[in-house]
Structures are given as structure tokens and as C-alpha cells.
Specification:
4 helices, single chain, mainly alpha, Four Helix Bundle (Hemerythrin (Met), subunit A), about 85% helix
């Protein structure tokens, strides 16, 4: 029953791990020694993609599981997949041209909003009834 949310969770975590590895490779390529987070613009883009994805992941995971339990595991898994696709679009577009990242960001943000607000609405509804 909770297989789709579990798959979405694992894929989201794998995406974050890949983005983290990408930052590590960029550190070596552009000779950016830790703890520095500035230097070559290509490194800075990789770093911001990873950091922003982590910020959004903190919202995704509890939202995904609350939605799974309160609303629908299938819809939660689908919204999780949409979030992942949005983050991939975000990463690709931000890497190529930072000003073009809005679509990918919006897709992930909206998926998170549906998960969190949908969970909240159903929880309040169930509490009151």
C-alpha cells in the first residue's frame, strides 16, 4: 500500500545524493577547498542546486508521508514523482542558465504545497468530524 511513497522517497534521496556528489566533483574540478562555498560560477550553481534541493526535501518528506497516511498513498507517490521531475528540470535549467530555473522550482514547490496543505486540510477535517 505504501510502496509508491517509499519509491518516491528513495528516488528523492538518491537525487539529493547525486547532487551532493556533483558538488564534490565540482570542488575538485574548480579547486574550491572546503569550507569555501564561493569561487567559480559553475561550482556555485552546483552548490546552490544541492542546497536548494535539500531545503525543499525537508518539506517533501514529511508532507509525502502525511499525505500518504491521511489522503492517498498513490497520489502521494505521484506528487513525489512530480517533485523529483521538477527538481531535475530545476537542476538542468539552473546549470545551463540560472535565470531559467523558475519552471522547475515552481513544479517542486507546488507539489510540496499540495502535499502539506492537503494533509493539513484532511487532518483538520478529520479532527472536526
Amino acid at each position: 500500500m505504501l510502496k509508491l511513497p517509499a519509491i518516491a522517497t528513495c528516488l528523492a534521496l538518491l537525487l539529493y545524493a547525486l547532487l551532493s556528489l556533483r558538488v564534490a566533483r565540482a570542488r575538485v574540478k574548480y579547486n574550491i577547498l572546503a569550507p569555501a562555498t564561493t569561487g567559480h560560477p559553475a561550482f556555485e550553481r552546483c552548490f546552490r542546486i544541492q542546497q536548494n534541493t535539500g531545503e525543499q526535501l525537508i518539506i517533501l518528506l514529511p508532507g509525502l508521508w502525511l499525505f500518504s497516511l491521511l489522503v492517498s498513498p498513490n497520489w502521494a507517490g505521484l506528487l513525489g514523482a512530480i517533485w523529483i521531475l521538477g527538481r531535475i528540470v530545476y537542476a538542468v535549467s539552473y546549470t545551463r542558465e540560472p535565470q531559467s530555473r523558475a519552471v522547475g522550482f515552481a513544479v517542486g514547490f507546488l507539489a510540496n504545497a499540495v502535499l502539506v496543505l492537503g494533509s493539513l486540510a484532511v487532518a483538520i477535517w478529520q479532527y472536526l468530524h
